Amino acid sequence: MSATFFARHPVDVARALIGARLALAGVGGVIVETEAYHHEDPASHSHGGRTARNAAMFGPVGRAYVYRSYGIHWCLNIVCGSDPGSAVLIRAIEPTDGLELMRQRRGLSDPRQLCSGPGKLCQALAVTREHDGLPIDHAPFAFAPAASSAEIVGGPRIGISKAADLPWRFGLAGSRFLSRPFPK
DNA sequence: ATGACGATGCACT
DNA sequence: GTGCATCGTCATG
Questions:
Q1: Helix, strand or coil for residue A97?
Q2: Is A119 within 8 Å of A44 (Cβ atoms)?
Q3: Percent of chain A, pLDDT > 90?
Q4: Which whole-number Å values give the CA distances from A141 to A3, A25, A63, A78, A116, in the listed order?
C-alpha cells in the first residue's frame, strides 16, 4: 500500500494525506494540515544533498523523517516522491485517540492546542529521533488513508525563507485544528 | 574548534 | 504583533 500511496510528487501526497489517520502507540488522530518538500526545492532539507541528518529522506518512501527544530522541537515528515529526497511535513492533527496522554504530555487540556503545529503534535504523540526512519504504516506507527476525498485548501508554507511563494501548504477546509488559518 | 542558522512555540505587550 | 529560548547540524578554519 505505502509504495503506491507515497511514490508520487510530494504535493500530491500532501493533499492525499489530509483526512488520513495517523497514530503512534495508539495516540493520534486525523491529519488536517501538511506541507510538501520536493527534492529540487531550495527550502527542503534534502536540497544540499544527503547528510547524516536527512538520510531518511533518501531512503524508502513511507518512512518517517524526524528532525530537531530550533534545538527544542521535533518535527515529523513522511518520505515520499518518485525520486529520493522528497517528504511531507505533518503540521497538524485533529486529536481523536489518546487524548488524556496528549493532555499530560502537553500540559494543556484544550483539544485544539494539543496537535496544532509540527512541534506540538510531536510532543503530544511523543515523536523523537528514535522514530526517524521507521515505516509509517507499521508498529509503533499506524496509518490509514482518508476514507473519502476531503475538501482541501492551500496556501504558502510557514516559517521558511526560501521558495516561500510556493503554495505547498495544505489543510482540511474549515478545520478548527489547524496551526494557523489559511489566507483568503 | 568555532560560528551561523533555523520547516517553532510560548510568553508578553 | 514582537521577542526569544536553545542546540543540533553543517560549513569553515
A1: strand
A2: no
A3: 94
A4: 16, 6, 10, 12, 19
- The pLDDT tens digits of the residues spanning A80-106 come to 999 999 999 999 999 999 999 999 999
Q: What is the DSSP letter of A168?
A: -
Residue A1, pLDDT score: 60
Task: Strand B: list positions under 7 Å from protein Cβ.
Answer: 6-10
Q: Provide the phi-psi class of A30: left if phi over 0, else alpha when psi is between -120 and 50, else beta.
A: beta
List residue ranges whose Cβ is under 7 angstroms from nucleic strand C.
A 48, 51-54, 67-68, 70-72
Q: Are strands A152-155 and A169-172 parallel, antiparallel or unpaired?
A: antiparallel
Task: Give dist(CA A10, CA A8) in Å, integer.
Answer: 6
Which residues in chain A land under pLDDT 70? 1-2
Domains, chain A, ranges and CATH? 2-172 (3.10.300.10)
